[in-house]
Amino acid sequence: MSIVLVGISHHQAPVELRERAALDSKRASELARTLAGERSEAVCLSTCNRTELYLADESPEGAEEKAEAALLALEAELGPALYRLRDEDAARHLFRVAAGLDSLVPGEGEILGQVRAAHAAGATGSILDRLFRQALHAGKKARTETAIGESPASISSAAAALAEQVFGDLRGREIVVIGAGKVGELAIRNLVSRGAAIAFVANRTAHRAQDLAARFGGAPLSLDRVGDELARADVVLSSTSAPGWTLTREAVERSLPARKGRPLFLIDLAVPRDLDPEIHELDGCYLYDIDDLEAVVAETLADRSREAKRAEEIVAEEADRFRAWQASLDVVPAIASLRARAEEIRTAELDRAKLNDAERRAAESVTAAVLNKLLHLPTIRMKQAAAAADGVIYADAVRHLFGLEDER
Amino acid sequence: MAELLFWPALLAYGEAAFAYLNDARHPGISGRLATWGVRIGWLVQTALLAVQAARADGFPWSTWAGSLNLFVWLVVGAYLIWGCQPRYRLLGLAVLPLAVVLLVAARVGGGTTVGGHSHYSNVFLVLHVGLVLAAFAGFTLAAALSALYLWQERRLKRHETSILRLRAPALSRLDEVAARTIAVALPALTLGIAVGVVRLRDRGGSFDALMAVTVLTWAVYTGYLALRHLAGWRGRRAAYLVLAGFVLVAVVRLALPVTHFAT
């Protein structure tokens, strides 16, 4: 059985093409079952960045054609963007995908769950089951043994991670949001998902403040009253299109006595900036604007790239292990036939010897031990030869020497 | 023979110190190795102290070097309460090298030997020394936490881009834990001083400079807690005050061999 991969990804296909080839989990599962038929195995991995078909089939050429046809049926223009990989290369590719090494943001965590879901929904047999299990193992190992997925990869997640550097657990922390536009929404989601709660939403137009407050919690507030509510806030998130400061140093300074030393973390996502940079000079106030956050993200992405090198080594090890396993499949039938033939001869000779019970038990024990010792080394050597790609030659030689051809 | 327990304890603390350093550069398995180094080192040192206690004639840590041995054990023990959490591993960088140096000093001064004779005549003195040492161990840890706070705060103020790579505990958490440590250590110091004063009256001794500095230390940490609760002193100012208190702790510890201990 050979493994065949045909697919498209963000590397070659623009989003306009990818979205036409994207399949939901139900359709992906149906496609896998159709491609697998009675005698093959198939898995369809479809995410926003890739649609890939993995097949295990006796005829790699036929499997490749089937997979190609299936993808071109989804979108005829996919042709130039398609890539095709086989066996070891296909396995290595899947391991890299599962480890997040082939993702837009190296180490992103979502892909591992998507690979798991594709495996569960696929039509797998012994080959693809082993391939996907090992890919999931490689993905987990890359994440636990390197820091590839640890640091935030977006401005909004970096802002939330920095807030955690100030407060630790964000549960129970209160946010004052200034500006109800789309820009701040991702950061709000990130902060809220980590347990913070919105206290107030201040905006120039009241209905948009009410709308955001209705979706994320909190109460609407007029812009000129933000300074009055600062004593309560732990985090201030500002993202308006106002030309001047929405919050000045003086306003924050006035709130400090009532804060009793509690730190204040301020996030300014606006361009031009909303928050007076001098706020950062106040004791216990930490202001990060868009440039500061971008610099932090650039550093964490550079870290991810550095960690990716270590993750690549893990993937290579896992790919080697898979290759050795797959190669051993070539010699396993020959080994099994050889052992079966030896066992058959042993049993026949023992039957012919007409021994009493005690003698039979002793003879069985001795002959079984002789047989095991005799076949141990050839078994090991054939498995080693299989790993070194000579397995088929050795298997054929064994079949020929011991007359096992009929047992194929 | 039991004195040989010193070496595995030192080795484990040393290993932990190096592993913490490596963990700061490449987070991962080094952190776990460091944590196990601290645990094993502390258990071995506990065994050493237990053997010392079992075989001594009276209080086994009555010399300055012996008290240093006990002090290291108290500091590392206090650190172990939360230092094994991944976020607090950076604190190990401050605590473990200090533990190694002080343990070596204790060894050089003969504080890790077994079967010594106590210079302390009564239980009040043992209580006095034990309580003051425990309090000083707490203040040492609080100082390490405050130093870590100031470092982390400076990184946030400077917008250091590596801040999410080399993650320290959160500012608020460092501030809180330092305050809690002091809140536990201060009653021990208060009691230790009270026992010392009672004994001084009984024996009619005089009030020396070291005692004055110890009382000043007590005043600084009492002031710290009072300012924290009454005036909302937190953050940078509070951390500097803790470090100022620690300078006094260091002065008292360094002066001990000269004034209080027979060598």
Low-confidence stretches of chain A: none
Count of distinct structural domains of chain B: 2
CATH topology of the largest domain in chain A: Beta Polymerase, domain 2
Distance between the termini of chain A: 15 Å
Task: Label the structural class of chain B.
Answer: mainly alpha
Overall number of domains of chain A: 3
What's the gyration radius of chain B in Å? 19 Å
Low-confidence stretches of chain B: none
Q: Count of helices of chain B?
A: 8
Quaternary structure state of the chains depicted: heterodimer
Number of strands of chain B: 0
Strand order of the largest sheet of chain A: 7-6-5-8-9-10
CATH class of the largest domain in chain A: Alpha Beta
Tell how many strands the DSSP assignment of chain A holds: 10
Number of helices of chain A: 14
Verbal overview:
The complex is a heterodimer of chains A (408) and B (263). Chain A is of the alpha/beta class and 408 residues long. Chain A folds into 3 domains: 144 residues, Beta Polymerase, domain 2; 144 residues, Rossmann fold (3-Layer(aba) Sandwich); 78 residues, no CATH class. In chain A, 57% of the residues lie in helices and 13% in strands. Chain A contains 14 helices and 10 strands. In chain A, helix 11 links the parallel strand 8 and strand 9. In chain A, helix 6 packs across helix 12, helix 7 packs across helix 8 and helix 12 runs parallel beside helix 14. The longest helix of chain A has 63 residues. Chain A is elongated and about 105 Å long. Chain B folds into 2 domains: 117 residues; 144 residues, no CATH class. Chain B is flat and about 60 Å long. The two termini of chain B are 23 Å apart. Chain B has 263 residues and is mainly α. Chain B contains 8 helices and no strands. Chains A and B meet through helix 7 and helix 12 of A and helix 5, helix 6 and helix 8 of B.
